[in-house]
Design a protein that fits this description.
500 residues, alpha/beta, 6-stranded mixed β-sheet, 21 strands, 21% strand, globular
Length: 500
């Protein structure tokens, strides 16, 4: 188990693309089983037993899980019963819990990652390259993944593990290589290394922490959500009786395993889905019927959970990506009603964002696809914070970024919070969720089932609650679930807060 760490843009993904045959090196050698090799394509790498799970998934949305897994490898086990049996065998063996007939476009981020891991194992990989594999997992799932990786290692497989979570790296790796700006700057053995030393080797600074020392919560409500309900086809509720208030200067953290309604809640708040009942109120204005553009123009900021699908146009230059979501607002437009685009204004402000947020790029005319994932994320955060939102939806704001960029994004959120910003924070990094939040709620099966105190809850306790188990520092897990169920079935019950 060999870990590779480095800040965003250090060259980790480029190196992995070379090892996987997606990019050819200009010089140097690669050897597999002591034999020098030269890969012209991923097919060459796969043939030598190398499999890669990318940070940004390589899946066809319009195909099923089974079709994605067998795509390009139909000769291994066919495309029917043999393939299905093999997929089930691998899924059961490693606890991946995938549904072969599910459409990929209907899957959340965590399920997509499991499909990618399954693809690699299906092809018989002996060397696994895992790029940020724990970014969307809760602690229990991370432990299970690491246990599976240890089993693979015991069977003789080699694993290259790329991560920005230095604590995880130190707990699972046998050896660590640190690269900075495309060059190896050191190696380390976990037993002789601390997270602080590793962070300093990576970026020249100490490991940041997300803890927020002072409270800035006011009594002025910014966003009020009342009994929100969203139904899937067939009438099944994916969100049921969602009620909460976020005040100016408050970060409300929402904890939940992927697929429990977080994505649907985000899309209902930003206007990508229409709620079946309930109300959304932004500083006194009911915005439930408003389209997304009107919500954006009235101060709703949005850092999406999947930057490639919902945050960027990958083939467009950075300055055009800076315009997205803010087309009618300055400096992207001019005129009284923002009717005319202002390319020069957008370009000038993109240069400012690049400098202020340390976006590593040769210029603003390169495509978003040419940036590393962390630098793409910094561009999105800079774009959203520039417009001084009143309410910010921050879904996994530091996913895939290095410790230096993490600290910068946390500082931006804390500073905006001090200035009165209301934030809904959704994150798979439970340390981040606990450290930044003033209030914590747990979502399970589309319902808010518990409150937690960030000052006392541990990541392990929070992770247990997210999977449906009650823990000591959560308020009334069972009572809250029973209360919301009672309220949903009785029209004349007291308001939710009073009932609780």
């Amino acid at each position: 188990m060999h870990a590779l760490v480095g800040e965003n843009g250090a060259g980790k993904s480029t190196l992995m693309k070379i090892l996987y045959g997606m990019q050819k090196p200009d010089e140097g050698t690669i050897a597999v089983d002591a034999e020098q090799v030269a890969f012209s394509s991923p097919a060459d790498a796969i043939a030598r037993g190398i499999g890669m799970v990318h940070q940004h998934f390589m899946l066809a949305d319009n195909l099923t899980v089974l079709e994605n897994v067998v795509l390009g490898s139909e000769k291994l086990h066919g495309i029917g019963g043999g393939a299905r049996r093999k997929i089930k065998e691998i899924s059961d063996r490693y606890g991946l819990s995938v549904r072969p007939d599910a459409l990929v476009e209907d899957l959340g981020v965590a399920d997509r990652q499991r499909v990618e891991i399954l693809k690699v194992l299906y092809r018989g990989a002996r060397t696994l390259i895992l790029d940020e594999p724990t970014a969307v997992l809760v602690p229990q799932e991370v432990d299970a993944l690491f246990e599976n990786l240890r089993e693979l290692k015991a069977e003789g497989l080699a694993v290259i593990f790329i991560s920005h979570k230095l604590g995880e790296v130190l707990s699972v790796a046998d050896e660590i290589t640190v690269i900075r700006r495309g060059t190896t700057v050191g190696t380390a053995v976990p037993a002789d290394t601390t997270p602080r030393q590793l962070a300093e080797l990576m970026v020249g600074s100490e490991l940041p922490t997300p803890e927020t020392s002072e409270s800035t919560v006011t009594d002025r409500p910014v966003l009020q959500v009342d009994r929100l309900r969203l139904e899937a086809e067939g009438g099944r509720a994916v969100l049921d009786d969602i009620t909460f208030t976020i005040h100016a200067g408050e970060v409300l953290g929402l904890a939940g395993v992927e697929g429990n309604g977080q994505t649907e809640l985000i899309e209902a708040l930003i206007g990508l889905q229409s709620a079946d009942s309930g109300a959304i109120v932004l500083e006194g204005d009911e915005i439930t019927p408003w389209p997304t553009r009107k919500r954006r123009e009235h101060g709703v900021g949005y850092i999406p959970e999947d930057r490639h699908r919902h945050g960027l146009l990958l083939e467009a230059p950075l300055w055009e990506n800076r315009i997205l979501g803010h087309v009618t607002e300055k400096p992207n437009s001019k005129g009284k009603r923002g009717f005319w685009l202002d390319p020069k204004g957008a370009q000038e402000d993109t240069r400012r964002i690049v400098e202020a947020y340390d976006v590593r790029t040769p210029g603003i005319d390169v495509t978003a696809a040419s940036l590393s994932g962390g630098n793409q994320q910094k561009l999105i955060v800079g774009r959203e914070m520039t417009h001084k939102p009143r309410f910010l939806i921050a879904a996994h704001p530091t996913r895939g970024v290095d410790v230096g960029a993490q600290a910068q994004i946390w500082d931006q959120i804390r500073e905006a919070r001090r200035e009165g910003l209301a934030v809904l924070l959704i994150s798979a990094d439970l340390d981040e969720l606990i450290g930044l939040s003033d209030t914590l709620r747990v979502i399970y099966n589309g319902r808010l089932v518990a409150d937690a105190d960030p000052a006392t809850i541990t990541p392990e306790e929070l992770g247990s609650a997210m999977t449906g188990a009650a823990t000591g520092h959560l308020e009334h897990v069972e009572e809250l679930a029973e209360s919301t169920a009672t309220e949903a079935s009785a029209a004349d019950t007291a308001p939710e807060d009073e009932a609780r």
